[in-house]
Amino acid sequence: MAEHQIDDKLLDQLYRDFETAHLNPLWTQLGDLMPIKPTSKAVPFVWNWSTLYPLAQRAGDLVPVGRGGERRAIALANPGLGGVPYVTPTLWAAIQYLGPKETAPEHRHSQNAFRFVVDGDGVWTVVNGDPVAMRRGDLLLTPGWHFHGHHNETDRPMAWIDGLDIPFVHYTDTSFFEFGSDTVTEESTPDISRSERLWAHPGLRPLVGLDTKTSSPIAAYRWEHTDAALREQLALEDEGYPATTEPGHAAVRYTNPTSGGDIMPTIRAEFHRLRHGAHTRPRRDVGSAVYQVFDGSGRFHLGDKIFPVTKGDLIVVPSWTPWSIEAENQFDLFVFSDAPIVERLHLHRTHILEGA
């Protein structure tokens, strides 16, 4: 059989006709559509709290909070994503700043959200009418389509980080948004929210609402419980019991008490504590994660770069990036990720880098 001859003119015309018909041939883009391994456009990066907080303060002086802009939230824009306000292709993270005596009006949206407090107190977030105190070390949930607003009852400003699944919801064209009250629907300031009074008793579940809920019904996971759990893991390790994930590495996952699963269907949250000098095994994971240093200092090894970090700094680990952590002193880290999405789609994979 004679060798097939390619007529360049006919081939060029074929490609022009593809374009006119809004078609795209696989053979010209296989490497982009089906790469050998995950090749995230997001890049490893660190946002330093020493830069973030002063910028948030300046925004507090110049930008009002209220109906319209809704929130004084400043998104972390991953340098690899072309300027969009996403920390990874699936996750959104921001520093939110609320000035003295300010109120952020209520609204609700399809996106799942949480808040994590690195420092401060005196702010209440009101979630579906339930006032929830925000204090250092607390993880606070606002599941999708829950009305929520915030009010600061002090003469001091407060900043925290927000985490949402905005990029994922945007990509899937599933977003809804609705304005609520121009203030907040409940101005009381209890130490403990109603949701905690009902749900936040270790190992105990109320016999109301026995159905499995998509997101956790606990509005706040309090620092005193997180700290105690981590402290006891390390104490048990000292006593010779298997209680830590790696030597000197205590870790907990925030869970939904109705299912035992993640706090929300698209976001996983954990807290990790490393002893002085401890380090994690080098690894890489499908799916992306964002860490915030709660206390202490250490180093993140991300790909071929080393990033020194300290209290408040935010670190992004894109999908399939080789990473490990080492502690210079007791090193406390909050982390959230898109693991529930990846696992539910059965696309999860982890590779422990042996000998590294």
In short:
The protein is of the alpha+beta class. It has 7 helices and 22 strands. The relative contact order is 0.15.
Structure overview:
The longest helix is centred in the middle third of the chain and has 16 residues, at 223-238. Strand 6 (123-127) and strand 7 form a beta hairpin. The strands form five sheets. The protein has a six-stranded antiparallel beta sheet. The radius of gyration is 23 Å and the shape is globular. Helices cover 18% and strands 30% of the residues. The protein has 356 residues and is of the alpha+beta class. The chain has seven helices and 22 strands. The model has no long low-confidence stretch (mean pLDDT 95).
What percent of the residues sit in helical stretches (DSSP H or I)? 10-25%
The H/E string reads: HHEHEEEEEEEEEHEHEHEEEEEEEEEHE
Strand content: 25-35%
Q: Which strand order do you get reading across the main beta sheet?
A: 1-19-16-21-14-13
Largest sheet: 6 strands, antiparallel
Average the pLDDT over all residues and give the rounded result.
Answer: 95
Distance between the termini: 53 Å
Coarse morphology: globular
List the helices and strands and how they pair.
Layout: H1 8-20, H2 30-33, E1 45-47, H3 49-62, E2 73-75, E3 92-98, E4 103-109, E5 113-116, E6 123-127, E7 130-134, E8 139-142, E9 148-152, E10 158-164, H4 166-171, E11 177-179, H5 194-199, E12 220-221, H6 223-238, E13 249-253, E14 268-274, E15 283-285, E16 289-295, E17 298-302, E18 305-309, E19 314-317, E20 323-327, E21 331-337, H7 339-344, E22 350-352
Antiparallel strand pairs: 1-19, 2-3, 3-10, 4-9, 4-11, 5-8, 5-10, 6-7, 6-9, 8-12, 13-14, 14-21, 15-22, 16-19, 16-21, 17-18, 17-20
